[in-house]
Amino acid sequence: MTASGKNRRLTIMRVFWLLYAAALVTATHIPIPDDAIVLVTAYDKLLHGTAFFLLAVFTSIAFLKRESPLTSWVSLCGALLTYAILDEYLQNFVERTPDVADWLCDALGIILGTFVTRLGRRWMFTGMQPARVEQL
């Protein structure tokens, strides 16, 4: 792929990331309508984990190179964990209730998303294959 093709793909990914991040901020800071509370409450933790898993994947792809050192990945994870704490705290001001359990689900999603992306990039770009289970 040419340099201009890589730059274009990276720009598209960063625009996609920006749109996803804006949608996530909006979704976590608007009051939940009364008729949706039961549905959202039933899947609240799953929604938190999934949303932040995707945020971690998209952020990793948009801003880290495959050869980025481990410290860059850890820093990205730390920044997203800090954002998740801030996100929960700011819900105090928009008729939502912050919850430590929500943040823990956010954190699990962030850690898994970052790990899966890093591992996936290693497999895709370095030819590293997952360990095979030997047959008996």
Q: What distinguishing features does this structure have?
A:
136 residues; mainly alpha; 5 helices; elongated
Textual characterization of the structure:
The chain has 136 residues and is mainly alpha-helical. Helix content is 74%, strand content 0%. Helix 1 (3-28) packs antiparallel against helix 3, helix 3 packs across helix 4 and helix 4 (70-90) packs antiparallel against helix 5.
Mean pLDDT: 87
Q: What Rg, in angstroms, do the CA atoms define?
A: 18 Å
Beta-strand content bin? under 5%
Largest sheet: none
Task: Give a brief description.
The chain has helices at 3-28, 37-42, 44-63, 70-90, 100-126. With 136 residues, it is an all-alpha fold.
List the helices and strands and how they pair.
Blueprint: H1 3-28, H2 37-42, H3 44-63, H4 70-90, H5 100-126
